[in-house]
Amino acid sequence: MKRYLYLWHRWLGIGLCLFMAMWFFSGMVMLYVGYPKLTPREHLAHLPALPLEGCCAVPMRAGADWAEGLTLSSIGGEPVYLLPRPGQAAQVLDARTGTPAGPVDAARALAAAAQFAPGAAAELQALIDEDAWTHSRGLDAHRPLYRIALHDAEHRLIYVSSQTGAVVRDATGTERVWNWVGTWIHWLYPLRGNALQPIWTDTVIWLSLIATLMAVLGMVLGVLRWRRRPYRSGSHSPYSGWARWHHVTGLVAGVLLVSWIFSGLMSMNPWGIFSHRPSLDVAAFSGAPAAPQTDTESLLRRFQADDWRPVELQWRPVAGRYWVTARSADGEQRVLDGRSGQPVAKLPVELLHGAIAAMAPHRQVQFEWLTDYDFYYYPRTEHSMLGHLPKPLPMLRARFDDGSWVEVDPATGALLGQSTPARRVSRVLFALLHSWDWLPLLERRPLWDIWMVGFSLGGLLISVSGVVIGWRRLRLRRRRRVRQGLQGRRVIEGQQ
């Protein structure tokens, strides 16, 4: 039986160690350079201040049009209302007239580029469905996308939605260069956006699963081959050269190597094991709000009373009332009661409790106020996978008796997230084991960096040494075959 364990580990390693070396190297790049995205901070920073005169004096149509909320922003230098639509891109309406905006053509795409980077020359490259920097499923509602090259200091590519005309992604030259050896190969993106797209998910899942099996076998065999009493060579390992490096490093860093490969498998949500959704009525949280009683111009005047210039307004329905959040270009936010127009520091606690309870009226709910981050709620650096999502404090968490959670920002009434027991298991098996999202490390950088880079180098050494050992094994087999072929030929010639 032991012989078969060696054979399985050897031949799986020959096939997979190259992938593992690639994963560890690209993973170290991803620690510091993430996949391109347009973060909320970048979005706000490239918006002009909302004009006060001659704009938006008449609010949108009341009633059902507002059921999902409303945003006043700018696209192509013009103020627009954005009406969210589930599963689709937002509907765009001219903020001055309330009428739907026309189709997004090349001229409107270039106008969006001019708003994003005033003064920079813009070159419309193509209308594309997907390319190396737009694989994210979050862009599906905006496809096809106008790809525009900006001749600015950062050599950006920006992508404009053909549905709304807004910039939905930017990728700097630096991001693109590092991503060729980072995210692009880490997630096997050469298989995406082409004829191989249907097999991408299964390929990543099965490679990760087999690599996990190979690494576990290696750990077992490494322990079996280690001796307390040294071998004749004086070493506790029977190997030398690259094989010894492979053996010893595997014993030191092997557990983390296994956890990283396995957690990478978990990141793919294999076979939908973490896909259980909370059975909560999100619409009940909003209620059935009446039309706002304060018009947009009056709201803008109140926000700008002390020369504060918002670039975006968002009407959010909570418990049958609208609350208006304004944000400036630097990310500062202020909130007004959409009914009275008065500023509020946070929404009334009783109102939030009632809105949350309405999501599941037949269940018991417990409320918890977080003033510090905890194991499930914490910030990450902006370039990381979900690091762009806001994590404000204090935060209101509601726990339902079926294990579902809801997290709400009391300052704005925004639903920050929903959670189930399955998702919290995913947080442990993926985020904790793969990125080491653990507050004692995250709050003590560079301790987190030393941990991640140090053990990544260990995993890379295990993988590279495995590649060398495998290459030598294949060369040795080839030489044996050639030698046997020559001997066989000599025998035949001797018989003749």
TrEMBL record:
Keyword set includes Cytoplasm: no
Transmembrane regions: 12-35, 204-224, 245-262, 450-471
Keyword Disulfide bond: no
Lineage: Bacteria, Pseudomonadati, Pseudomonadota, Gammaproteobacteria, Pseudomonadales
Full protein name: Sodium:proline symporter
Keyword annotations: Membrane, Transmembrane, Transmembrane helix
Leader sequence residues: none
InterPro entries found in the cross-reference section: PepSY-ass_TM (IPR005625)
Superkingdom to which the source organism belongs: Bacteria
